[in-house]
Amino acid sequence: MMAACMADGVTVLSNVAKLVPILNFSPQEPEVIDLARFLTGSGACVEGAGSDTLYIKGKNQLHGSECIVPPDRIEAGTFMLAAAVTRSSISMSPVIPSHVACLIDKLLAAGCKITCAHDTLEVSAVPDDVGHNLQGFDVRTCPFPGFPTDLQPQTMVLLTTCDGSSIVEETVFENRMGHVRELQKLGARIRVCGSTAVICGKEKGSALLSSHLVAKDLRGGVSLVLAGLAAEGVTEISGIAHIDRGYENLDAKLRLLGADIKRLIPLASPL
User: Enolpyruvate transferase domain: which residues (predicted)?
Assistant: First the structure.
């Protein structure tokens, strides 16, 4: 899209989103729509934002404009899942609830309590007086506004702590089950067949146990952090450069929430 804004003639981008019959939702990821708005505000000619086809007429020159970057919906979802995994509560702002609507629905079905007010979202997974555990649920990743593939590994961690069996089907990316082997080191009961994983939830008296884990990618890596928060004992995770690529000061933010987490290797200074 950005390159086409300065190219000669009209560029047509097709199949840029998957049309889905969900009312009040655009099939395009919100970040794509926001970029189109920013480019248009800078003098670009972009038509079709929010649909599955974009038409961009190239210009010789663009001009400056202002843009407010929307909140990171994947980071928000990761912290929502962190609260659920640790059976605690969290309040976050700013968050756009409609951008994490699929995750909200799943957490509500599991038994979490969620409240939304403007750009503030609160999640509580604190056990009730009876001690009821969260219930497992099935997940099928899809393009927006479906369940995001970038929250699949973190969600799988939650499902290992819930009651019952759950099924996670990955339909967006291939080979996105690399985190499963690491979770199995903690005692997670997960079986993988192709792009589908079956998670056997928590048994009475069982718990994830600490181990040394290796982060091999961004989202799988952060799922190991969530698993470490739920595991008994000290969990050590290497390969955290993958995590730093997508989460700013993750360890510091988790410490502010009460997590016992320490970075053994100093954070690299930005270039």
Answer: 1-253
pLDDT digits (tens, 9 = 90+) for 116-134: 999 999 999 999 877 789 9
CA 263 vs. chain centroid, Å, equals: 22
Question: 180 falls in which pLDDT band (50, 70, 90)?
Answer: very high
Sorted by where each begins, the domain ranges of the chain are: 4-57, 73-256
Q: How far apart are CA 266 and CA 81, in angstroms?
A: 26
Q: Where are the beta strands (DSSP E) in the chain?
A: 10-14, 45-47, 53-57, 89-92, 113-117, 120-124, 139-140, 165-169, 189-193, 196-200, 212-214, 236-238
Give tens-digit pLDDT for 135-158: 999 999 998 989 999 999 999 999
Which class is 73-256 in CATH?
Answer: alpha beta
Query: Is residue 189 within 8 Å of 200, Cβ to Cβ?
Result: yes
Evaluate whether 137 touches 110 at the Cβ level (below 8 Å). Answer: yes
Mean pLDDT (whole number) for 57-75: 94
Quote the CA–CA distance of 178 and 26 in Å, as a whole number.
Answer: 31
Which of 103 and 268 is assigned the larger pLDDT? 103
